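Q: Predict the bound structure with xanthosine-5'-monophosphate.
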Amino acid sequence: MSEKFPNSLGGKYLKEVLFTELEVKKRLGEMVFEIARDCRGEEVVIVGILKGSFMFLSDLVKFLYIQDIHPYIDFMVLSSYASSTKSSGKVKLDRDITTPLGGKWVLLIDDILDTGRTLSFAKTYLYQSDPKEIKTCVFLDKPSRRIANIEADYHCFEIEDKFVVGYGLDWNNRFRNLPYVAVIDESKLPAE
Ligand code: XMP
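A: Predicted complex:
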């Protein structure tokens, strides 16, 4: 078993670790430093897009705590993805936030910026609540797949067009719990 796969998944469903747990934490610390510099003194609201952002957001707010930034935290549920590795193209709001955004500095968080449809929908939607400003923050950015006209204000890593799992990212709701990011071996996955 590869040193980078600390359990039985390596070689079975996963073919390559892109970012180890340590690499993720190191990069996250750097990125949060930039965020803290930009939002210090503001009333900050963090809005996570579920489900994919849960692990990234959880680590990010712990790093913000170290920077003495103590945000409101809320979540919205959007769906655009059926149970496959292909996006459907449509985004719909399944659960809204309940935190008022008027005049606040909002950090909108998602796991990955792929075609950009999800983040673009969420940003447009949240601007209807009159925040002072919305900044976007994604764990991974796949610029080669972009369709919507949007870039993230902050991202941890840019990646090529590979389907990845771990650190909140899933395949069929599995593998979200991995503390690292891995490329999935689609040839080994059970047929849907
Ligand atoms: P869009 O295309 O709207 O997509 O930017 C954002 C959502 O698509 C999912 N997505 C992935 N999920 N591995 C995943 O586990 C991937 O490589 C991947 N690419 C896109 C994800 O749910 C994200 O929120």
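A: The chain has one domain: 22-164.
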